[in-house]
Amino acid sequence: MKKVLISLFSVTALSFAACLDVRADEKDRRPVIFWASEPVRPGETAMVIGENLGDHPAIEIVRLPDGRAKEPLQENVVWPRGGTPVDVLQAAEQSAKFIVPADFKPGLLRLRLAAGGAAVEHIMNRPQIWWVQGECGPAVTPGGWIRFFGKNLGWGIKDGIRKPVIRIEGPCVVSLAFETDGHAARAVLPKDMPSGSYRLFAHNGAGGRAGWSAPVELTVTNKEVWPQNVFNVTNFGALADGVKDDTVAIQNALSAAESQGGGIVYLPLGRYAVSDTLNIPRRTVLRGERSDWVALAWSDMRNPPWALVQGTNSFGLEDLTIYAHHHHHVIAADLGDKPDAGNVFLRRVRVRASSYRGHLTPDEVDARFRETMKWSTGGGDTVRMGGSSIEITECDFYGSGRTLFLSRVRGGLVADNRFFNGRWGWYCISGSDGLIFENNEITGADLMSTGGGLNCLDGSRFSQNVYYADNRLQRMHGWDREAMTSDAGGEAYSGKAVTAHGTTLVLDGKPNWRGQDWRGAGVFVLAGKGAGQYRRVAGQGEQSVIVDRPWDVVPGTNSDICVTMFQGHYILSGNEFSDCGAVQFYGTAVENIVVRNTGTRMSGFRGIGLWYHGYQPNWFCEFRDNAIKEGNYYHWNRASDALLEITGYRRAPYTGPLNVGSVVRHNRLDSQAHIRVGAATRDAIVEGNHVANSAQGIFVSVHATNIWLHANTFEKVREEIMDDLKQRRIAQERLSRHPFFNRPEPVAVWDFEKTERMNVADVSGNGFRARLNGGATTVSNGVGGRAGRFDGTGWLCVNEVIVFNAPDMTVSLWIKPETLRGRRGLVGKRFSGCEAPFILSQNGARLSFEATDTEHQWSFNFVSEPVLKEGQWTHVAAVVRRGKGVALFANGKKVAEKQNASDRIVNHEPLILGREAWGGEPASTSTPGYFIGLMDEVRIWTRALSPDEIEKEASRRPAGNGFPRSSGSQPITKR
Asked: Is the pLDDT of residue 1 over 50?
């Protein structure tokens, strides 16, 4: 009987378990939406990203009635009858698109997607609040302004929708109208509003009771009042005549304020000579009578102090001017990694600080510049601070190096200022969480000045919630010229997941936490089950990570996971960029918005997902209503198109998409600018854009997937739609028609016998002059006459961008290296760090070859065995045969080869001799690799020479001049 009972129980348990498995499996197959593109208006394309959406889902939508908003209630909206079916575009298991009917009225949309016998519903265009700020930074004050930022915050007047409102619930309930441009909103609180904790809801006027946003937390508090005792520096002995040193008098006044718990140290009209650091106590303001009446002047110092004006936290400067000669930092406070950092304000402060002022010799200038490079990549900081409640308003800063360094600002306001980047100077805003950066002017004040941007370069694991609006940036010619770039690569983990339970994700390997706290970083499901989801790190284990909330779809063991820095919720609105480089998200970017910006002679607007010391996904970013007015952009050695580009760069082992869910809508591009959708991009909308006066309109890589082009227009555009295959075909046709294509004789020969106006003649007669740059010269001790001499700072440049892209090529030359250390360029088509069709380099005593294939992989790279000798001539050659691969030769003998049937890319870089984009000793990707030694008889063919032909080229080898003797040697006859 017992056995029977056990059997019956086992059968029942198995049946119940099977039932559970079926139900679990059914639940696992239900469609889920992670994200939808918003805002979306009638006639525009909408996109949803999710799971189990099916190859043929059915989608219907309704516009929700507006009605009165009433109070926020988290109630379910019942699906009404009579939804409007829409055609589903580019449907896949993890994405779908559809066009909102043009006869709909703008407003809230509810969609219903059915797939696999189940359905999911989603409301679009409902307000989303990302963060809130007030006069106290993260907190707001009674009677003070409140600003909040996000998506779908309002509509245009012509839409005829009710005015937007906010509702604040807590110790009291307040409803207020607010002003908004759709992404940024502003209101003023009642003066009698009680302090306390509140919840804030926003309504954009559409959708009635369904139109309320999710709540965000809000703290209302009275502003701290610092002591108001006034300490006049003249009462402490300051003469303000610009001659007597007033340092001690001013510091004594500051110390007196400190003894009273703070106060106002007052500088009446005058010029104050200063010779050391002024230390500002907490809760103390250093105030001048007027910024144009009061000047603090530091004379030149051989060893300047770490900062001229310094405090820890809770202090202010206002209404004064700072003059300085040689300086390190100018105004400094604690950075955001200190627990009490912040609560610092600078108002109407002017700085004129130049370490290069006066009659310095070139050697003195060089010494000071090298000294500043030890402090940071941009020299000393004009302003350096971080923490909570930072305010910098109506200031004017001109310094010798990096103009601004903000670290881990929480609730900051930087507005109405002028910043001048100094020598190699830039601006750096790191690890933010709530920052308004608006109506500032940033100018390159030096020919070496560059730009800057938002980043995690201070070691932060996240940067988020930045409103970057109505700024004007110009004249940035140094370094990469980036006007506004996100930055800071690095990951803790990339690989597979093992299991996921609740908020715990067990990984298939140990993350490299590097002994640091990674809370706030991003956890991304790149591919596999649940792809398109991200969470934030809330905790970390030896082989696991705790995320901030459960997954909508639990990642599977086939899912590709990366844990990396998080940069998201950036709003770039209404900025003007001219004579500068890119405005870009370089690496991780999540739900960033680029809207209503203009560019003139700038590189363009870009969203790039890539490997940057780790996988960096670029997800759900929007580029809308931007304009490139003048698309010709000059960088490095050539002019090129400005781009509005979304792309991803692949790198094994993960080779899936890194750019997902981008929207490029209603942008205008003129004068040689175009839109580009690169490889490793999935699910993007390119819609309603206008391109005029350009060689091409929209480029879409054949390696991108589910790219929807809709309602774009073109004016005077030669090729409206382009892809890799078409571009390659055009390039090959152009090459095949080129008079120098596949000629039996060399198309270019540089024997260094004749130079004119710093150009080495091309003795082939084809006119490809090679210009001497830097420390490149010609000398008499070549292989049979003169040779090129490279001292480690020079190179030759041939400004021809077509011929040397030939599919079959041979490069032959003699080299006599002075050193066998480091990586050094010989001949290649890469001056900047870009993809290239060939690069021949010296790698120690070895030869190396690099080239990018049309899949954007560096699959041609390989290195020979040691073949070079220091101080001895060696004939080297590289032979590239399309469909076969590459062979390297030394002294006529094949020393290495790599078979590869792929095609190589073409680029528009010049031909460079004696320099490579990266290298040096030790080799680094941040420094160029310059050849050191002699080079002679450089010859290039647009065909692949045979091994016998290469041996013949090398056999004409004379004795002497550092050559080893060889039987059958023949002297080289110079033409």
From this structure: no
Alpha carbons 587 and 565: distance in angstroms, whole number = 9
Q: Find all residues with CB under 8 Å of 763, minimum gap 6, and list them.
A: 749, 750, 751, 753, 754, 975
Residue 273: both structure tokens together: 């000579």
**55 and 36 inside one domain:** yes
Consecutive H or E run containing 22: helix 2-28
Q: In the chain, how long is the greatest CA-to-CA distance?
A: 111
Q: What is the CATH number of the domain that holds 814?
A: 2.60.120.200
Length of the chain: 975
pLDDT value at position 906? 86
d(CA 159, CA 867): 73
Residue 422 to residue 353: CA distance in whole angstroms: 10
Same domain flag for 433 and 452: yes
Cα–Cα distance measured from residue 639 to residue 728, given in angstroms and rounded to the nearest whole number: 21
In a domain, 457, yes or no: yes
Q: CA–CA separation, 608 vs 456, rounded Å?
A: 16
Is 281 part of any domain? no
Continuous H helices in 271-339: none
pLDDT at 4: 29
Separation of alpha carbons 356 and 360, rounded Å? 7
Instruction: At 754, list the tokens.
Output: 């004749």
Are 822 and 807 part of one and the same domain?
yes
Q: Residue 863's beta-bridge partner residues?
A: 848
Least confident of 54-63, 434-443, 637-646, 780-789: 637-646
Q: Which of 370, 385, 419, 416 is closest to 399 using CA atoms?
A: 419
Instruction: Give all strands (DSSP E) within 792-836, no chain letters.
Output: 795-798, 809-817, 823-828
Same domain, 759 and 877: yes
Q: Which token pair is 697?
A: 């309109």
Q: Is residue 318 part of a domain?
A: no
Task: Name the band, by pLDDT with cuts 50, 70 and 90, for residue 956.
Answer: confident
Residues 794 and 769 in one domain: yes
Return the SS3 of 751. coil
Give the helix ranges, DSSP H, for 119-236: none
Q: Same domain, yes or no, for 498 and 444?
A: no
Q: Examine the domain organization and report whether 791 and 836 are in the same domain.
A: yes
Q: Is 676 exposed, middle or buried (0-12, 13-18, 19+ CB in 10 A)?
A: buried
Helix (H, G, I), strand (E, B) or coil at 160: coil
CA nearest 961: which of 777, 778, 782, 750?
Answer: 782
pLDDT of residue 17: 32
Q: What φ, ψ does residue 727 adopt, rounded to 5°?
A: -65, -40
Does 193 map to a domain? yes
Sign, CA dihedral 735-736-740-742, equals positive
Out of 534, 564, 594, pick the residue that ends a domain: 564
- Edge to edge, the sheet with strand 196-203 lists 173-177, 165-169, 196-203, 216-220
Measured from the Cβ of residue 311, the count of other Cβ atoms closer than 10 Å reads 23
Total count of domains within the chain: 6
Cα–Cα distance measured from residue 217 to residue 197, given in angstroms and rounded to the nearest whole number: 7
User: Which run of H or of E encompasses 9?
Assistant: helix 2-28
The CATH code of the domain that includes 159 is: 2.60.40.10
Beta bridge partners, 719, equal: 696
Q: Which domain holds residue 814?
A: 748-955
Cis peptide before 744 (omega within 30 of 0): no
Which of 397, 392, 409 is closest to 335 using CA atoms? Answer: 409
| 672 and 650 together in one domain | yes
Closest listed residue to residue 196, CA positions, set 216, 223, 176, 172:
172
Amino acid residing at 741: F
Neighbouring C-alpha atoms within 13 Å toward the C-beta of 404: 29
